[in-house]
Amino acid sequence: MRLLFSRPAVSLLCLLFSFVLTPACPAQTAQARDSFTLESALRQLIDRFATAPNLRGPFKLQFFQDPAFAAETGKDWQDFFRQQLESHHFSVSDSPDAALLRVGVAETPAELVLSATTRVGEKDEVRLLTFPRASFRAPSLPVVPVRLEKQLVFQTSDRLLDASSPGNDTSGGMAVLVYRDFAFVALRIDSVGAVQQSVSLAAAGPLLSRDPRVELSLEPDAPSIVFSEKSCPFSWTAAAADIPCRAAKSVPRAPAVLTPSCDSRAWKLLADSSDWSTPDLLQAVPNEPSHKGSAAILSDFPGPIIAISAEQNPSASALVVTRNLRTGNYEVYKVTLACGN
Fold first, then answer.
1. Whose CA is closest to 271, among 311, 319, 229, 224?
2. Is 92 in the same domain as 158?
């Protein structure tokens, strides 16, 4: 899972990393100092992490770091963290049986945020430290002139695989692909989230894997569902039995790229989505090589991100599909880039 923070508010940061946190785990903010080094901050983070009850190693370390911040710090801090952890008598191992410990360094427009997260028994233990960016002893970090905003536009208890925006739909609607009663179903959704049309795509065959990469393509007048080895065109008016499938090697969907009105730069949306049991983070990074040093923009989601689809006007917004781990529902969010920090 990719790191990790979207807002400077400490309470929301705790929610992001808590997965299923109990109210007894508040995020803690480091006392502001005139300046600090990353090493001193990591020592504080480990000191707090070591106070978690029933904490036992060995730990398998997984590090996260914003691309822009990596240019300021490199990766030496990861070795430093490992050494400090061992100095607290916690062993480190690459064994698959070792408890996973996620450690991250990230930045928001106003703060630097350090995190350590691991599973202990039936709950997640999270420790966070935040520092004003201005107090960090490093060259000035870039300021992000835009922010990510998201709006929940659809939710369902059915397993939701993808969402897309029709090119000829000016009403603000969309289409989604769900898996219901062992069959694929395409739904047309209006601008207020109500289902307007449903088409069974049972002829496309059963779901063959736990983690399918299935896309809903809404090319003008030629909608289809696309698998890794075949494509199944359909019509919103044809019967399910009339849906043909043909062998075709799919091309991975291009990343969604947004360009806000106040910034000439294009921002690419990324998500790791490698762990389907934990919340995910949507990250917007500069798409142009000349702007790779700019800070990433981050937004947390209530579960793993399943799909990201640019709308037909990609400069405006994208659709993000996620599964809410608290409610069990699948959700679609409309994501936009807004001006200002």
1. 319
2. no
Residues 129 and 242 in one domain: no
- Compute the residue count for the chain: 341
H or E, element range at 146? strand 146-156
Per-residue pLDDT tens for 203-219? 777 776 665 678 998 87
Q: What is the pTM of this model?
A: 0.59
Provide CB contacts within 8 A for 123, sequence distance 6+: 20, 21, 22
Helix and strand counts by DSSP (H, E) for the chain: 4, 20
Instruction: Note whether 178 and 298 are same-domain residues.
Output: yes
Reported as type and span, the H/E element at residue 92 is none
Q: How many domains does the chain have?
A: 2
Q: Which two tokens stand for residue 235?
A: 């019509």
- Give the Å distances, CA to CA, from 83 to 48, 92, 118: 16, 9, 18
**Is the pLDDT reported for residue 273 higher than 60?**
yes
Q: Clarify whether residues 324 and 184 are in a common domain.
A: yes
Residue 5 gets which letter from DSSP? -
Euclidean distance between CA atoms 40 and 141, whole angstroms? 19
